[in-house]
Specification:
2 strands, 3 helices, about 100 residues, single chain
């Protein structure tokens, strides 16, 4: 399994968790996209630093090959999945008190 398929599975899972399992629907809220837009530049900066210095490297066959700030586009999708999953669980568990 390649990094691309793993990332797509994580994105699908976090979207399903948000929209169908917990029914919190963060992706439909402006607050989520505002917070994500604040996090995204820091993710890009960190990804650029790690990949441009060869601290983190990817096999060519494991990724699509498209890069943003020297990091594979899959890293952005993985970051999105992590942020959405964590925030969904945070809201869900916070409602329990």
């Amino acid at each position: 399994m390649t990094y691309t398929f793993i990332v797509l599975a994580f994105v699908t899972s976090s979207l399903a968790l948000d929209l169908f399992v917990t029914k919190i629907r963060l992706v439909t809220r402006r607050a989520f996209w505002t917070s994500y837009s604040i996090i995204l530049p820091f993710q890009l900066l960190t990804n650029w630093w790690l990949t441009s210095r060869n601290i983190v490297m990817y096999r060519g066959g494991a990724i699509i090959g498209w890069r943003i700030a020297s990091a594979p586009v899959e890293d952005l999708l993985f970051g999105f999945a992590l942020i959405l999953g964590v925030l969904t669980l945070w809201v869900k568990l916070g409602k329990r008190g």
